[in-house]
C-alpha cells in the first residue's frame, strides 16, 4: 500500500469515528483540518525523503568512486610490486656477477703484479730507475691490501707504459760496465729497445754488446766494435750525419 492510500484510509477512519459525536459543520471542519494536516505531513515526508535520497545517492556515488580509486591503486601497487621484484632480482643477479668479476680481477691483478716484479729484475737500470716508484706501490700482501683494484690497475698500466716506451725506441744512457780485469768503468750504452745494447767507454778501447737473458742482461766485451758503437752513439746524439752502421746482434 503506497503513501497516498495510507493517508486516505486514515482520513476515513478518523471521519467515521467523529461522525457520531459531532455536528456536520464541526465534522467537516475537523475533516478538512486533518486532511490539510495529512497533506502537510506528506509534503514534509516527501521533501525529507528527497533530501535523504539525494544525500544517499551522493554518498553511494562517492563510495563507488573511492572504491574504484582504491581498486586502481591496489592494481598499481601489485603491478609496481611485480616490477620492483623483477628489477630487484635483476640487480641482485648483476651484483653477484659483478662481485665474481671483481674477485677474478683481483686474482689477475695480483698475478700481473707478481710477474712485473720478477720481470723488473731483468730490465736495464735505465728502465728500473724509472719504474722503481711504481713498483714500490705494489702491495706485498695483495689479498690483504686496502688499495682499490682501480688504483692497482692504474699503477700496473704506469709500469707497462714506461717499459713499452723504452722498448719502442733507442736510448743512450751512462752506466758502469766491468772490464776484463773486473774493474767498473763508466761507459755510454745505446739500447735498441729491450732487444740489444752496445757500450763503449770514453777512451774508445773498452766496448761490448749486451742482450737480455733469463737472469738479467748478459754483456760480452768486444773492443773491436768500439769505433762503430761510438759512431752510432754520435749519430743518435746528432754529432754526426745519419749513416748506416752495421753492428752484430747477439741472442741469449
Summarize the structure in words.
- This protein is of the alpha+beta class.
- It has five helices and five strands; from the N terminus they run ααααβββββα.
- It has three domains: 1-111; 123-167; 170-252, no CATH class.
- It has helices at residues 3-18, 24-120, 125-135, 149-167, 226-237, and strands spanning 170-178, 184-192, 196-200, 207-213, 216-221.
- The chain has a five-stranded antiparallel sheet, covered by helices on one side.
- α1 runs antiparallel to α2, α2 runs parallel beside α4 (149-167) and α3 packs antiparallel against α4.
Major sheet: size, sense and barrel closure?
5 strands, antiparallel
For the residues shown, what is the average pLDDT? 77
Q: How would you classify the helix and strand content by structural class?
A: alpha+beta
Order of strands in the sheet with the most strands? 1-2-3-4-5
Beta content: 5-15%
- The domain count comes to 3
Helices, by number, come to 5
Radius of gyration: 54 Å
- The level of helicity is 55-70%
How many beta strands in the DSSP annotation? 5
- What series of H and E elements makes up the topology? HHHHEEEEEH
Shape: rod-shaped
Distance separating the two termini: 124 Å
Low-confidence stretches: 3-22
Which helices and strands appear, and what pairs or packs with what?
Elements: H1 3-18, H2 24-120, H3 125-135, H4 149-167, E1 170-178, E2 184-192, E3 196-200, E4 207-213, E5 216-221, H5 226-237
Amino acid at each position: 500500500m503506497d503513501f497516498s492510500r495510507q493517508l486516505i484510509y486514515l482520513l476515513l477512519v478518523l471521519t467515521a469515528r467523529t461522525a457520531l459525536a459531532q455536528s456536520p459543520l464541526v465534522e467537516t471542519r475537523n475533516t478538512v483540518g486533518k486532511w490539510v494536516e495529512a497533506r502537510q505531513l506528506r509534503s514534509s515526508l516527501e521533501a525529507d525523503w528527497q533530501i535523504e535520497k539525494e544525500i544517499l545517492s551522493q554518498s553511494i556515488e562517492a563510495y563507488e568512486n573511492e572504491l574504484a580509486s582504491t581498486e586502481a591503486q591496489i592494481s598499481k601497487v601489485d603491478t609496481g610490486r611485480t616490477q620492483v621484484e623483477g628489477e630487484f632480482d635483476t640487480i641482485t643477479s648483476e651484483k653477484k656477477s659483478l662481485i665474481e668479476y671483481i674477485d677474478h680481477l683481483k686474482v689477475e691483478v695480483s698475478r700481473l703484479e707478481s710477474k712485473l716484479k720478477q720481470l723488473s729484475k731483468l730490465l736495464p737500470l735505465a728502465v728500473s730507475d724509472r719504474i722503481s716508484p711504481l713498483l714500490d706501490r705494489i702491495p706485498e700482501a695483495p689479498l690483504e691490501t686496502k688499495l682499490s683494484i682501480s688504483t692497482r690497475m692504474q699503477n700496473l698500466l704506469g709500469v707497462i707504459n714506461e717499459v713499452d716506451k723504452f722498448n719502442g725506441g733507442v736510448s743512450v744512457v751512462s752506466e758502469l760496465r766491468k772490464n776484463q780485469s773486473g774493474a767498473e768503468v763508466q761507459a755510454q750504452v745505446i739500447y735498441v729497445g729491450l732487444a740489444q745494447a752496445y757500450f763503449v767507454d770514453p777512451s774508445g778501447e773498452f766496448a761490448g754488446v749486451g742482450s737480455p737473458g733469463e737472469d738479467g742482461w748478459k754483456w760480452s766485451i768486444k773492443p773491436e766494435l768500439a769505433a762503430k758503437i761510438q759512431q752510432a752513439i754520435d749519430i743518435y746524439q746528432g754529432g754526426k750525419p745519419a749513416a748506416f752502421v752495421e753492428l752484430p746482434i747477439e741472442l741469449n
